[in-house]
Amino acid sequence: MTFPYDQARLQALVDEFDATAAAAEKTGREAAQFQPRSRGVTEQDLAAIERYARSGKAPKEFKELQQRIDSGEFSWQDVAAGRVMDEGVQKALATGVPDLRRAYTAIQEGQDLDDIIEAGNPSRPAPPVRPARGDDDEDGPSVFRRDAW
After folding, report:
1. Are the beta carbons of 108 and 115 closer than 8 angstroms?
2. Within a 10 A sphere around the Cβ of 111, how many other Cβ atoms?
3. Cα distance between residue 88 and residue 65, in whole Å
4. Separation in Å, CA 139 to CA 110, 120, 131
């Protein structure tokens, strides 16, 4: 026994599903063609790194790396391209890892990115976590964090 109403409703659902699946496939094909373009490390970036390495703020390992570059052993471009990755280079680059971990944790906690950047100096404590601002509507939090999902 067949029910024409049920059959028509079923066909409408199948057609809707087919249209949604076709749209998803199209989006997938378009996404597969997307290739983000990194600007890479610019000469300005390298100059800023060198200024930091020569500054009083740079750790000892970074200053030693700058001395090796000054002696002509290799260049900042070689370091940025990954052509030089000996123990001295690794130690110098590892000096920033605690700051990166601290920034990552702050981001995961939902801290404001501008505050995290401003507190980039490891000698300064990170700003306190701001509580999410409550909205008058009940659509959910206005600050999205992983633990809010």
Report:
1. no
2. 20
3. 7
4. 18, 33, 17
Separation between Cα atoms, residue 115 and residue 132, nearest integer Å: 15
Contact predicate 106/116, CB 8 Å: yes
Judge whether 78 and 50 are in contact, CB under 8 Å. no
Residues 6+ apart with CB under 8 A from 52: 58, 62
Which of 50-59, 89-98, 103-112 has maximum average pLDDT? Answer: 50-59
Give CA–CA dist 53/55, Å, rounded.
Answer: 6
Tokens of 119: 């507190």
pLDDT digits over 6-62, tens only? 888 888 999 999 999 999 998 888 888 877 665 677 888 889 889 988 988 888 998
Structure tokens at 24: 């998803």
pTM: 0.47
Structure tokens at 138: 């009940």
Nearest in space to 103 (alpha carbons), one of 117, 123, 82: 117
